[in-house]
Amino acid sequence: MDVLPDAAPLATKLRNTLIQYHRIADGEWRVAKKTKDATVWRKPSEEFSGYLYKAQGVVEDVTNRIVDHIRPGPYRLDWDSLMTTMDIMETFEENCCVMRYTTAGQLWNIIAPREFVDFSYTTSYEDGLLTCGISLDYGEVRPNFVRGFNHPCGWFCVPLKDYPSHSLLTGYIQTELRGMLPQSAVDTAMSSTLANFYSDLKKALKT
Q1: What is the pLDDT of residue 108?
Q2: What's the whole-model pTM score?
């Protein structure tokens, strides 16, 4: 596909999908990993044959600064240890863009480097922000990369009521890595990646 979709309806649909995920009952999730920074859960995805992951942890900073570090922009590449390149391909109004990014190999390169082209949208949610995305079949795949696909994913960031200088960060991720991979390797990589995301983000916010 070489034609970009209309940004406004895609942004609305994406936001509504993420809010649905945010309302899934606690009993439907199974713990996949716990660290001092975050807890990661998973449940079968309704989009593909893998899992929808949920990650949650408290981050000691204000909502706007946290989201500025997560969404496409100058900060993300500096601190996200998995991301190796990021280019903004198109920019729309209303905090929408299309970005292409690449990720490093994982698990001793059992999972080779991946490339993604994502539509990204950042909007208000309750007293905080939601930054969300979905992959597009757009542009040529770079040599030496496998094109992965992010089904609807995103991060909710809201200030804690009693500690507004701290924020509750909740992510929903369902990445189809594609290629010939054992599912167990994918599951291990996803849980570890999400837990590391929180520790890397916290270090970046302290600098």
Answers
A1: 63
A2: 0.93
